[in-house]
Amino acid sequence: MDKIEQVIKEAGGVSALAAALNIKPPTVHQWKSGDRKVSPRLALVISQKWPGLVTVHDLRPDIFGPAPADGGQEAA
């Protein structure tokens, strides 16, 4: 399952995610279909509202780069 689909499911559906982000449902449908990318601003909001489920790196690697290999944790 795609990361944005996981967020949609966790939020309770397309309309619920749109309402939580104060955007219109067609925008979320466009993310799901791949017709449109999540804006960098909303990628930050989504990653903060659903921590552990998705990161900005998952949603916009073209802007924020790939996820750190160690998840941001350094080995002892």
From TrEMBL:
Gene3D superfamilies: lambda repressor-like DNA-binding domains. This is Transcriptional regulator.
